[in-house]
Design goal:
Layout (H helix, E strand, L loop, with lengths): L1 H15 L5 H6 L4 H11 L12 H17 L2 E2 L7 E11 L5 E4 L2 E4 L4 E3 L4 E5 L1 E3 L23 E5 L4 H6 L1 H6 L5 H8 L3 E5 L1 H4 L2 H7 L2 E5 L10 E4 L1 H8 L6 H9 L7 E2 L6 E5 L1 E15 L10 E7 L19 H19 L7 E7 L7 H8 L8 E7 L23 E5 L6 H13 L4 E3 L17 H5 L5 E5 L18 H20 L17
Helix pairs in contact: 3-12, 3-16, 4-12, 12-16, 14-16
Length: about 525
């Protein structure tokens, strides 16, 4: 009886899709069982959370490449390989050799202060400069009349009202300069920050700031160290000064800086920050499926997902320390792998399909940022970017956990991009969805002003910054986000298959269309804070 029903359903589907686009039959090859098989490896304990960089991430990349080779997907990385390498320099504070002395008082790293890892060994006078933000065009200059070259700046945490309202990027265009920019331009040695919200968390911040990674050719590490001072250290700094430390802390809490002034020139701060550096590497995976049209195959529809997660917890025992990242973003990674197989083993659309598994998303979109700065195919020939990040979860009936309130339903997915900057992609997606699975495409996060700011938080944004239209598929934040509980048994594989099939259809239609979508107009595309 079950076999008869299955045959009847197959006959009905063949009849229903007799006049349907060719891609629908290929999309049906993406199955929940295949997704599960891939994810049970990618999100296994043996890969230890796929941190960037790590052995687990390397193994995940090798797993992806082994399948691409079997299906005949061509390498599209660097030097004829499937890989693009992120060369990391990791800087870490050496706590036992880092200290600050003010007069006869000495402060230990991680107890009396914390600092971002920039080496420094200097003794200098100090200058208080309010919140440290300047805008010469508006006549705002807390450094006016003060000699700060070779000095240490004391800066109150916070932002001017206009910067808060406009956001960092737009404020910079309006002439605002941050304390860090001013310190570098004016030759200050370091910044001591008064930050009441961090004073009770010195030890926790010390762990977070104990190391930082920079990718060669991508990001400036900064030349001026930023030091967060404890209350005892601030008391020592402002003892006998015109304003007491307690008053400055109160003003910092109220975002109301005092008038700038130079501290007593006889008061010196001796700073020793010892930093150890090492070089590491991580790899993104890149493949290409060549299009069928002799001319249009020079253009690319790119589909991406980040392969990395956050590794292993510093504390805990056994497998409970492993952040498996089944949803984030094992789900997007294996959905992309199934999409790759569907394209590679069947008929091809006119344009080529560029497949990208990024490393370093969890460290600041590093893999995708590196790719758009050092593309392995001509960037101007990439007409679209489709991104999948966390597409594996559904809100379950009866779930009252407030942290799961924005999980999407079993036939629902958040779509981010069309309303903000990619209406042409949105029109194609709507048509694909109506022709096929009719998922509920939720636009809630598709806004520059949504508090979660998700438009800026995944790898598609690296492409948007280059004017490339993009769309981001996402199933919603949940209680297991960045927790060791993000594991494979919580994944909705039926939903993952529907999302992957929909993405396949979108990619096919764009790749086979006679015209490319309109480029993104970058004017006004700024983060709202």
């Amino acid at each position: 009886m079950r076999r008869l029903l299955s045959l009847s359903l197959s006959v009905w589907l063949l009849w229903a899709w007799a006049d349907a686009p060719l891609w629908i039959s290929r999309a049906e090859t993406i199955t929940p069982s295949d997704l599960r098989a891939h994810l049970e490896f990618i999100a296994s304990d043996e890969l230890e959370g796929r941190d960037t960089p790590s052995r687990g991430l390397d193994l995940a990349g090798m797993y992806i490449v082994s399948h691409l080779q079997r299906w005949g997907v061509k390498p599209a990385g660097e030097n004829g390989t499937y890989y693009q390498t992120l060369n990391y320099r990791t800087d870490a504070i050496n706590p036992t050799e880092s200290r600050i002395r003010i007069g006869q008082q000495s402060f230990e790293y991680g107890v009396g202060f914390v600092a971002r890892p920039v080496a420094l060994n200097a003794t200098a006078a100090l200058v208080y400069v309010g919140d440290g933000w300047s805008n010469p065009e508006k006549g705002i200059d807390p450094y006016a009349g003060l000699d700060v070259q070779g000095k240490v700046l004391v800066v109150q945490a916070g932002y001017p009202k206009e910067v808060l309202e406009q956001g960092i990027e737009q404020s910079a265009a309006a002439g605002w300069r941050s304390p860090e920019q001013n310190a570098e331009q004016k030759g200050a040695l370091a910044i001591v920050r008064i930050d009441p919200s961090d004073m009770g968390r010195i030890e926790r911040i010390a762990r977070a700031w104990s190391q930082r990674r920079g990718v060669e050719g991508l990001q400036s590490m900064g030349r001026v160290p930023i030091i967060v001072a404890s209350a005892p250290m601030l008391n020592a700094l402002f003892e006998g000064e015109r304003i007491a430390a307690s008053e400055l802390i109160r003003r910092a809490e109220e975002n109301a800086p005092a008038e700038p002034f130079a501290l007593n020139p006889s008061k010196q701060i001796a700073i020793t920050l010892s930093v150890q550096s090492r070089v590491e590497a991580a790899r993104s995976v890149i493949g290409v499926i060549e299009g069928a049209d002799p001319e249009l195959k020079r253009e690319y529809v790119s589909i991406g997902a980040h392969l990395d997660h956050v590794g292993v917890a510093a504390r805990g025992e056994g497998t409970n320390r492993i952040f498996n990242g089944a949803d984030d973003n094992g789900s997007g990674s294996v959905a992309l792998l199934e999409i790759a197989e569907a394209f590679a083993t069947g008929p091809r659309p006119k344009r080529s399909i560029l497949l990208l598994w990024y490393a370093g998303e969890e460290k600041g979109l590093l893999g995708s940022r590196l790719f758009v700065e050092r593309p392995t195919v001509p960037l101007e020939n990439i007409i679209v970017n489709i991104n999948m990040d966390m597409v594996g979860r559904s809100k379950q009936p009866g779930d009252t956990n407030p942290r799961n309130r924005e999980l999407s339903g079993p036939n629902e997915v958040y779509v981010i991009g069309p309303n903000v900057a990619s209406p042409d992609l949105g029109a194609v997606l709507k048509r694909v969805n109506e022709q096929y699975l009719r998922m509920e495409l939720n636009p809630m996060y598709d806004s520059l002003s949504h508090p979660e700011q998700l438009y800026f938080r995944s790898d598609h944004y690296s492409f948007v910054g280059k004017g490339i239209p993009a769309v981001f598929f996402f199933s919603g934040l949940h209680a297991d986000y960045h927790q060791v509980t993000d594991t494979v048994e919580k994944i909705d594989y039926e939903k993952m298959a529907r999302v992957a099939r929909t993405v396949f259809g979108l990619a096919w239609e764009v790749a086979d269309a006679p015209e490319r979508p309109a480029r993104v107009n970058l004017q006004g595309l700024q983060r709202r804070r």
